[in-house]
Amino acid sequence: MEQQVLLCTKQGNTLTDTPHSPAEQNMGTIKATSNLTEAGLFTSEVTISTQGVYDLALRGWAKAMPPAQVKQVWSYLLSEMYPGYAFDII
Q1: Using CB atoms within 10 A as the burial measure, which of 18, 39, 43, 54 is most buried?
Q2: Is residue 15 in some structural domain?
């Protein structure tokens, strides 16, 4: 569905329609590959993939802060979801 947006230029403009963008082009996916050893060690490799709006939002968020702070935020979010577990974010 097209949406109207205000396009800001020095000359000024009226409302403009944005082109339709299918949902398949604006998706975020999270894929986890996990392993549980006989000794009880559980490990996972998680890949976050984004397209379109989700990609723009995630990249914009990550660029807005230093890499160490991005890692700190991810560590905090994961520790809140999985209390007591240790994470190695690369």
Answers
A1: 54
A2: no
